């Protein structure tokens, strides 16, 4: 652990004052060094009270997703063990692709407080205001064929659903294949990108955007109705570091289960958590648009839809919108 984190931990473990001497003993450095690290922490936004003869007291933590703040909520073996932190970045996915090409290990995560070129699926842009959301990309190196790569979107959506439920008690669910909804409105989107050869995946970049505390007016005009922040739905500001730490923790758990036991073992959990099932849907494909009822997930995660003519069709990649329930 780095010195700064050790000083922070020594401070954070007590709700009252900790003497400079105690901290210096805990971290094995001089009191002058401790004082310098306290100043660094203050520069990072930590409010630390100092009182003569009593020592230091951690009054508050900044609303930042510093790697060591995420680490407090992580319970993983490899995901999030290396986190690259940025205040502003173009897109964490672009950065992750670069870092992956340079050989980053599996589980490396890129996070940013704000993205200036945040990207959504289908070439759309993704509003990523500073300090308001969880904008992250995780590098995975699964030993799968490129054909199976889309499954990672479903697996990640399940992890996001579980993290949201744990942190907020909101009833989150998956909108097939890679959005997460609360009250029918989008709180999170996932963009999976791949570096692959014909038969092997070199790296997957799993971009997860969670609208944690994004003000409603920060959403683009065409998303104002369909998107919502967890903070608006829960009625309180969320701890973004905790949300991300728990997302990565659930992500590792589902990913390991998939790799070790096979995708089949996740199907029931996916079905239970998919809001799309049992609903009237519109399927928008390159070849055209059609309607039906989503009835199941196939063994490989594809969406099974009975179309308006009564034919059973399997949807692998499409934009699927849920038609509102009729009022009657
Ligand atoms: C979508 O719903 O269209 C997908 C949105 C994905 C947004 C995330 S935020 C972190 C990562 N970096 C990006 O540029 N996009 C993804």
Describe the secondary-structure layout:
Layout lengths: L2 H10 L7 H8 L3 H13 L3 E5 L3 E6 L6 H5 L11 E7 L2 H10 L7 E7 L18 E7 L10 H18 L3 E4 L3 E4 L2 E12 L4 E10 L19 H5 L5 H22 L2 H9 L7 E6 L2 E10 L5 E5 L4 E4 L3 E4 L6
Parallel strand pairs: 3-4
Antiparallel strand pairs: 1-2, 4-5, 5-9, 6-7, 7-8, 8-9, 10-11, 10-14, 11-12, 12-13
Helix pairs in contact: 1-2, 1-3, 2-3, 6-8
What would you say this structure looks like, in words?
- The chain is of the alpha+beta class and 328 residues long.
- Helix content is 30%, strand content 28%.
- Helix 1 (3-12) crosses helix 2, helix 1 packs across helix 3 and helix 2 (20-27) crosses helix 3 (31-43).
- The mean pLDDT is 94.
- It binds biotin.
- Biotin binds at residues 91-93, 115, 118-121, 124, 126, 128, 135-137, 179, 189-191, 207, 209.
Provide a quick synopsis of the model.
With 328 residues, the chain is α+β, with helices and mostly antiparallel strands. The protein is built from 9 helices and 14 strands. The site of biotin has 20 residues, from helix 5, strand 5, strand 8 and strand 9.
């Amino acid at each position: 652990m780095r010195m700064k984190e050790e000083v922070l931990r020594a401070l954070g473990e007590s709700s009252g004052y900790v003497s400079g001497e105690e901290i210096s003993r805990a971290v094995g450095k001089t009191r002058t060094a401790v004082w310098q690290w306290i100043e660094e922490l203050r520069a990072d936004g930590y409010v630390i009270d100092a009182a003569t003869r009593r020592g230091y007291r951690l009054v508050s933590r900044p609303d930042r997703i510093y790697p060591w703040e995420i680490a407090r909520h992580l319970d993983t073996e490899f995901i999030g063990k290396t986190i690259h932190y940025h205040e502003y970045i173009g897109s964490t996915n672009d950065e992750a692709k670069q870092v992956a090409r340079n050989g980053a290990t599996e589980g490396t995560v890129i996070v940013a407080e704000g993205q200036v070129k945040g990207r959504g699926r289908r070439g759309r842009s993704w509003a990523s205001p500073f300090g308001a959301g969880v904008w992250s990309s995780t590098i995975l190196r699964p030993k799968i064929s490129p054909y199976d790569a889309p499954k990672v979107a479903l697996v990640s959506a399940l992890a996001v659903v579980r993290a949201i439920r744990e942190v907020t008690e909101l009833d989150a669910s998956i909108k097939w294949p890679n959005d997460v909804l609360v009250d029918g409105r989008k709180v999170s989107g996932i963009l999976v990108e791949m570096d692959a050869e014909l038969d092997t995946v070199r790296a997957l970049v799993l971009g997860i955007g969670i609208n944690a505390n994004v003000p409603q007016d920060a959403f683009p005009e065409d998303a104002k109705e369909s998107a919502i922040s967890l903070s608006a739905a829960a009625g309180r500001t969320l701890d973004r570091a905790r949300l991300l730490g728990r997302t990565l923790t659930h992500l590792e758990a589902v990913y390991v289960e998939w790799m070790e036991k096979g995708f089949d073992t996740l199907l029931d959990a996916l079905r239970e958590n998919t809001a799309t099932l049992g609903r009237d849907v519109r399927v928008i494909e390159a070849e055209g648009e059609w309607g039906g009822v989503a009835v199941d997930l196939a063994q490989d995660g594809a969406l099974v839809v009975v179309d308006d003519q009564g034919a059973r069709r399997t949807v692998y990649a499409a934009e699927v919108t849920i038609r509102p329930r009729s009022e009657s």
